[in-house]
């Protein structure tokens, strides 16, 4: 998996967002995208299917034409033995027919962030002037459905929504949403989640979350209309697996996930939304990521043994963690 941050800018302002530089309208240069993928393909370490996630701030503030150019360039460089699948995680407010055409033409995976019915969604997912974004996000979802674009949703669970599994399910069913992922509202960056605060007289978070998932899963199965609940469907094969086989987690496997970082607000080598490129080189953080990657590639032959040792150590760690009961589904996801 390769996570690419085309811009840090976001057109809305969720109260629980922890991402920095959401006012910064600079966009990664096409030349940086090209260089990143040419090096990935040349490294020989690319797996047969690479998922490219365009994510964070809001990827749809960058024009459709940017992605057409980037996708075409990546496609031209792609070795025949490697399949590249693109996906977006979006707040959905900018989805229109033009975006749907791109999604269909390139078979793009689409994840829309929506926190459930209006009263839950609008508590946290707001515009910069403090208004709720529910109507615009729902319009985006309806546009996807009208154009036949498959999608899933990610809902951030707050203390309120953990107490409302039935209301959440009713909402998904009423909007034809059948692929669902949940994220727990986390404390990260500048954001402090009240989910982890002491809850006198109330259930502990872990028990609260388990009760929510249990109820949601039972009701979803009873409805017969939900195809996928990530927190259940990805956990089951990890729980019910042959003895001695470690559960995979690409977030902890060496080199399974590449996430070149974008520098905080460095305008020298990014370009603004809608403006001409300033420098062709891409953002500084991405360049640092590339330098790291290039250094690794140059030392590839000598480091193969190191990599194999890392993989062995990783498996040891996973098995050790499993033996200590720490091997549980990752609730964060993308
Ligand atoms: S849509 Fe995502 S990036 Fe934008 S403010 Fe909300 S959580 Fe942050």
Shape: globular
**Biggest sheet descriptor:** 7 strands, parallel
Write out the distinct hetero groups bound to the structure: iron/sulfur cluster
Structural class: alpha/beta
pLDDT averaged over residues = 80
Query: Helix and strand string, N-terminal first?
Result: EEHEHEHEHHEHHEHEHHEHH
Q: Count the strands?
A: 9
Low-confidence stretches: 262-294, 299-303, 305-334
Rg, rounded, reads 21 Å
Q: State the helical fraction.
A: 40-55%
Please tally the helical runs, counting DSSP H or I stretches of 4 or more residues. 12
Chain oligomer state: single chain
Strand order within the widest beta sheet: 1-3-4-5-6-7-8
In whole angstroms, the N-to-C terminal distance is 11 Å
Strand content: 5-15%
Tags for this model:
alpha/beta; disordered C terminus; binds iron/sulfur cluster; 334 residues; 12 helices; globular; 7-stranded parallel beta sheet; two-stranded antiparallel ribbon; single chain
Detailed description of the structure:
The protein is globular, with a radius of gyration of 21 Å. Helix 1 (30-43) runs parallel beside helix 2 (64-77) and helix 1 runs parallel beside helix 11. The strands form two sheets. A seven-stranded parallel beta sheet has the order 1-3-4-5-6-7-8. It has a two-stranded antiparallel ribbon with strand order 2-9. It starts with a strand and ends in an 11-residue tail after the last helix. It has helices at residues 30-43, 64-77, 97-105, 118-124, 134-146, 159-162, 165-174, 205-223, 230-233, 236-239, 284-298, 300-323, and strands at residues 2-4, 26-27, 49-54, 83-90, 109-113, 152-157, 179-184, 228-229, 271-272. The model is unreliable at 262-294, 299-303 and 305-334 (pLDDT under 50). It is α/β, with parallel strands linked by helices and 334 residues long. Iron/sulfur cluster (SF4) is lined by residues 10, 12-14, 17, 19, 22, 56-58, 91, 113.
């Amino acid at each position: 998996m390769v996570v690419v941050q085309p811009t840090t800018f976001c057109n809305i302002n969720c109260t629980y967002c922890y991402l920095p530089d959401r006012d910064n309208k600079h966009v990664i240069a096409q030349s940086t995208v090209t260089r990143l993928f040419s090096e990935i393909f040349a490294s020989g370490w690319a797996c047969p299917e690479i998922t490219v996630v365009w994510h964070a701030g809001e990827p749809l503030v960058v024009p459709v034409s940017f992605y057409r150019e980037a996708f075409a360039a990546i496609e031209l460089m792609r070795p025949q033995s490697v399949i590249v699948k693109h996906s977006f995680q979006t707040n959905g407010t900018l989805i229109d027919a033009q975006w749907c055409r791109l999604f269909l033409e390139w078979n793009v995976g689409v994840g829309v962030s929506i926190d459930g019915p209006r009263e839950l969604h609008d508590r946290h997912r707001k515009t910069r002037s403090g208004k709720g974004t529910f109507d615009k996000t729902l319009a985006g979802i309806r546009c996807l459905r009208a154009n036949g674009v498959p999608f899933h949703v990610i809902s951030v669970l707050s203390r309120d929504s953990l107490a409302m599994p039935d209301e959440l399910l009713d909402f998904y069913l009423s909007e034809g949403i059948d692929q669902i992922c949940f994220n727990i509202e986390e404390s990260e960056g500048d954001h402090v989640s009240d989910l982890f605060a002491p809850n006198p007289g109330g259930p502990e978070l872990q028990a609260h979350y388990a009760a929510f998932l249990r109820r949601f899963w039972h009701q979803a199965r009873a409805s017969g209309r939900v195809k996928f609940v990530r927190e259940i469907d990805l956990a089951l094969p990890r729980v019910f697996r042959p003895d001695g086989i470690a559960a995979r987690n690409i977030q902890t496997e060496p080199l399974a996930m590449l996430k070149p970082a974008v520098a905080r607000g460095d305008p020298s080598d990014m370009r603004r939304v809608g403006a001409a490129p300033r420098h062709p080189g891409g953002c500084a953080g991405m360049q640092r990521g590339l330098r790291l990657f290039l250094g690794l590639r140059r030392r590839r032959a000598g480091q193969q043994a190191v990599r194999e040792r890392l993989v062995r150590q990783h498996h040891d760690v996973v098995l050790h963690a499993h033996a200590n009961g720490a091997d549980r589904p990752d609730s964060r996801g993308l």
